[in-house]
Sequence to fold (112 residues):
Amino acid sequence: MIKIDAVLDETGLFRACKVWGHAGAGPKGGDIVCAAVSVLTKTAFTTLSSREGIMLRGGAPERGIFWMETDYSGAGREFLAGAGAFLMEGLKSVAELYPEHCRLNIHMERRN
Fold:
């Protein structure tokens, strides 16, 4: 099973996620659930990493693990809001379509 822990701030803005595990929905290299989660997270990471006003840390230290943390300054917030909403809707869709292979937990963060 793929497990996803996502963190949103009190306004619903995407702040971080950690993805780990293997879906087991198909053969290695042909697992639709793994492919969907990988494409969503890697595209979000690449898109956010090239945007001015967004600070991003993360990576894939080994097969089956991916993480990212975001921060922003100035106008970066608006872009992060859109990209984060897209990512979260995509991950929710995968988890809803394949609940036996993907679990999404969303945590709310309080910022002072």
Summary: The two ends are 35 Å apart (CA to CA). The longest strand covers residues 54-62.
